Amino acid sequence: GQNIDQPTEMTATEGAIVQINCTYQTSGFNGLFWYQQHAGEAPTFLSYNVLDGLEEKGRFSSFLSRSKGYSYLLLKELQMKDSASYLCAVRQNNNDMRFGAGTRLTVKP
Amino acid sequence: EAGVVQSPRYKIIEKKQPVAFWCNPISGHNTLYWYRQNLGQGPELLIRYENEEAVDDSQLPKDRFSAERLKGVDSTLKIQPAELGDSAVYLCASSSPYEQYFGPGTRLTVT
Predict the structure, then answer these.
(1) Using one digit for the tens of pLDDT, what is the confidence trace for A13-33?
(2) How does the average pLDDT of chain B come out, rounded?
(3) Do residue A45 and residue B101 have CB atoms under 8 angstroms apart?
(4) Burial of residue B72 (number of CB atoms within 10 Å: 0-12, 13-18, 19+)
(5) Phi (first) and psi of residue A81, to 5 degrees
(6) Which residue numbers of B have CB closer than 8 Å to A's CBs?
(7) CA A86 to CA A45: how far, in whole Å?
(8) Are B83 and B64 spatial neighbours (Cβ–Cβ below 8 Å)?
(9) What DSSP string runs through B51-62?
């Protein structure tokens, strides 16, 4: 089986930094993806990690530790438009993708 | 370059009626996924295609759902007959080795 766990909700202040964690259990790991999803819209691809370490893309960074089954998405200089759900997804060797339930982030002024 | 295209965007039908969703993936993406997403949850995989072959349909309710991907490009997902519990957003996605992109989805309401 495959379990993907992430917090249900988080709140942060505009301009601050927030870290959204994701833990997973899977066989045949072949990559971890983060997506942003605004209400009523489709998920938007943010990042992809397959090796351990940190991937940085502007205000967003994603970290992976395969030995710990752990990833996080780091959002810096938070803006109001960052209020959305953030989905963690794990791909297995056979290309199967499984998603977590998502973390609803609320950015407050 | 065009992204993943889906149609229709919205569909309202009565229960027991059939419905079909269409997806055109990003050019060159051999892997195509159909997901169902309920409110407040992550996407749930229904079926995955590698080219024209359905390689994972274990989550597809085969008594009423069917899918095809003729010629390994466009795909169609069908529900017949629809039930009230099928109301959800149906997402199509296509992927390369390093990224996966979603279409805008079809919001299905069964009344």
Answers:
(1) 999 999 999 999 988 899 999
(2) 93
(3) yes
(4) middle
(5) -70, -10
(6) 31, 33, 35, 40-45, 48, 50, 55-56, 89, 91, 93, 95, 98-105
(7) 10
(8) yes
(9) TTEEEE-TTS-T
